[in-house]
Amino acid sequence: MVKLKDIAAAVGVSNATVSRVMSNDPSLSVSADTRRAIIAKASELKYTPRRARTEVQADRSIMVHVGRWLGGELEDPYYAGLRLGIERCCFSQNIQVSITSDESAILDFLKKKASGAIVIGPVQGEFQRKIETAKGRAVMIDAPRNSHTLDNVFHDLYGATARLLDDLWEKGYRRPGFIGGESKYKASLPNETRHVAYSEWMERKGIFDPALVCVKGSTIDLGFESAMKLLESAMPPDVIIACTDSMAIGAYRAAQSKGLEIPKDISVVGFNDNPASEFLNPPLSSIRLAPEVAGTSAVEMLVEQLGGRDVCKSVVLQPKIVWRASTR
């Protein structure tokens, strides 16, 4: 069983600091990076608060659905943050939480009184329609926003990508490239949203060039392959925008293999702002998301539904651009 001291030792902080972060102590003075590192490590070690294991109310429970398509991406700090936000909020309100990738389990669960479901990521249209008609309580996270009956929580990735490109243009970059992940749910995945925002921004500027885009996947290895393709083109980019920090690490490796110096010869920007981003060489500029806030918001919205709210509600989170030494 994982204990607070295990997390403290792994992160390099005191047991008291870990305890106060996990209990969301508002009086604690600790950096955002340390807080995120503690939360990420707690999720990685699968830490469960003691009271969450023993003091739950049988009639207040939430089931979380994660699509099978996510696969290994569930180990990404973004999804770890979602899970921690959900679990910590449930813990604070004595709500039992379980996780499944079984669609039928979610639909059966929604039939129970005083229960609710949180669905992470895009889902196929048929499954979404079944959720809507199940007459249960549900909140979608990072899903297509085409439902008028389901609550949803999402980051404004389109707007964040456009703001990033505006800022890069102001900094003097003229050939931004994009590497991202494919989506079998076209125009639905967050990665796809970034791609659409990038393409439309480039078209508005009149500088769209398909040679500056490579969409393969979101792993480090695919980030390396995608960045290599862009760097070996006749007119390579002056900055690479990666849809995840993992892909950005792959871009670092590609630049190194080509003998390029970051940011002198090529700049790199990632998405998610994982805890390790600031420790890369050079530290990575990245778009900071708020997965823990998204998870907490989803639980709070379900609690509102349990309390009788019957008006559909959306929560939009605005990502923050964190500039570091990987850009000029």
UniProtKB/TrEMBL annotation:
Signal sequence region: none
Pfam families named among the record's database cross-references: LacI (PF00356), Peripla_BP_3 (PF13377)
PROSITE patterns associated with the record: HTH_LACI_1, HTH_LACI_2
Key words, A-Z: DNA-binding, Transcription, Transcription regulation
Molecular function via GO: DNA-binding transcription factor activity; transcription cis-regulatory region binding
Source domain of life: Bacteria
Keyword Transcription in record: yes
Limits of the HTH lacI-type domain: 2-58
Protein name as catalogued: LacI family DNA-binding transcriptional regulator
